[in-house]
Amino acid sequence: MNNFSYTQASTAKEATGILKDKPAAAYIAGGTTLLDLMKAHLQEHPQLVDINMLPFKGIEQTADGLRIGAMERMSDVGENALVLQQFSAVSESLLLAASPQLRNMASIGGNILQRTRCGYFRDAAFPCNKRVPGSGCPALTGDNHNLAILGTSEACIATAYPGDLSVALAAFDAVLTLENQKGKQRRVPVTDFYLLPGKTPHRETVLEPGELIVAVTIPTAAHTRRSTYLKVRERSSYAYALASAAVGLDVQAGTIRSARVALGGVGSKPWRSPEAEKVLTGAPATEATFRAAAAAALRGAQPRDDNRFKIELAQNTLVQALLKVAG
Amino acid sequence: MPHDFTPDPAAQPPGSAPNDGSRRTFMKQAGGILGLALAPPLISQAERLTAFSKTVAGVAAMQLKVNGTVRTIQAEPRVTLLDALRENLDLTGTKKGCDHGQCGACTVLVDGRRVNSCLTLAVMNQNKEITTIEGLGQGEELHPMQQAFLKHDGFQCGYCTPGQIMSGVACVQEGHAKTDDQAREWMSGNLCRCGAYPNIVAAVREVAQRK
């Protein structure tokens, strides 16, 4: 790691003020992503601002839904009684991610901002349009077995968010509260928070320089009562998803009243599928319907040499998840 | 076959010469003697441990409370908790495996929760209770998890063992070792290249069932 100075901020104003003066500085919460990247010299910062003292804490019921502070840890949210009761998919997405040690450390805000596991991004010996805009993308013709098949571009085919939580958040219409350097807060749906790579894969989210994630709010709805997160990996635990599905169904008398579907591991961002939801809504809750929804979700897929298998894998993952909640 | 290597405390009076001449035995005894000699002033130091400066740049004094004792180190802010334990405090029981949070060899407890000490900064862990493998036993008496690892032969080369034991202690404490499958899932952040997994699960489960 490069050397840096360290400052513990007590307030959001103090934290954002430091980044205003020194835009190359970075916030640190759990540190599990940041220090990992800094050790590999993929990110270098002259100053780290510790935001763990900021009051972005608590898991509480509000008029808009369940509000989770950005400084809460993955383990605490995953095992929280309110989260378990109302959003089992969110709990599962957290507890199937990383390891118990990392979940004790990583904050919710940091999880949402974790960066891609693309091997070319993570090896400074290679060009990468995310790291060095315009330098090229070796993944297009290289080892791309665990890269994206939906929402990709000729500049980048990474699963820019490789994790699990934001897949569940995207499915259930979660909204992020952000705070900028002027102390002004704004609300952004998770589905709008991540950007598609297009020609600018180095721009990954709509977060402005120095802006902080304060909280995430998940609205309760009929389709969140029965929800699940299914994750398929190369080993049974402690691995990123090859494909995953967050689903919620409201089924009445065998008919699907409302549905939510998002896929992980296959999109260049957490992949909400309005196409699948359209097939499901109003249809009978049968395997045939689920197969049709899965086909619709993957219709636009653009696989490369090594990740063609993900089309069928993601479809089967989605069908299994839907069968589980419909059961 | 599982076998019991638990040393008989009566066979070796405290403070006697290391009978196997091993570095480990020597370190353990030296640590004990040093701990006794330094105990009174450090207790008063513990009481003084309150605020620390908000900005740290370059080599600076940091206070870490490790295994109940507050110690001051001189280190840069970029020093991880793992490196501070090993290089500044000579607590080399905590191992550096991957240094990227992937193997779990560096697992320690911070305020009772298991963490990867390679992915957190020493400067961020002031004012916290840090427990390493050296602080688990009571003097010559091994922690039940250490005894269970000996009994079930939960290791081969031993490099991942301190991390496995620290993680196992937390796993049982959390209530995540109620079945073999649950123990496997909740111990998955600790890799063992020798593949001692069945014996590690047996050790963790035995301690969980005793509770």
TrEMBL record, chain A:
In terms of InterPro entries, this protein maps to:
CO_DH_flav_C, CO_DH_flav_C_dom_sf, Diverse_Substr_Oxidored, FAD-bd_PCMH, FAD-bd_PCMH-like_sf, FAD-bd_PCMH_sub1, FAD-bd_PCMH_sub2, Mopterin_DH_FAD-bd
In Pfam terms, one family for this protein is CO_deh_flav_C
Domain FAD-binding PCMH-type, which positions? Answer: 1-223
Top-rank lineage group of the source organism: Bacteria
* Keywords noted in UniProt: FAD, Flavoprotein
Q: Which PROSITE patterns match?
A: FAD_PCMH
The record, for PANTHER family, names: XANTHINE DEHYDROGENASE FAD-BINDING SUBUNIT XDHB-RELATED, XANTHINE DEHYDROGENASE SUBUNIT C-RELATED
Q: What is this protein called?
A: Xanthine dehydrogenase YagS FAD-binding subunit
UniProtKB/TrEMBL annotation, chain B:
Gene3D superfamilies named in the record: 3.10.20.30, [2Fe-2S]-binding domain
Question: Per its record, how is this protein called by name?
Answer: Xanthine dehydrogenase YagT iron-sulfur-binding subunit
**What keywords does the record list, in alphabetical order?**
2Fe-2S, Iron, Iron-sulfur, Metal-binding, Oxidoreductase
Q: Which CDD domains match?
A: fer2
Q: Carries keyword Disulfide bond?
A: no
Highest classification ranks of the organism: Bacteria, Pseudomonadati, Bacteroidota, Cytophagia, Cytophagales
- Organism from which the protein derives: Hymenobacter daecheongensis DSM 21074
Residue numbers spanned by region Disordered: 1-24
Q: Domain named 2Fe-2S ferredoxin-type: which ranges?
A: 60-136
The UniProt entry, under InterPro entries, shows:
2Fe-2S-bd, 2Fe-2S-bd_dom_sf, 2Fe-2S_ferredoxin-like_sf, 2Fe-2S_ferredoxin-type, 2Fe2S_fd_BS, Aldehyde_Oxdr_Iron-Sulfur, Beta-grasp_dom_sf, TAT_signal
> Which Pfam families did the record assign?
Fer2, Fer2_2
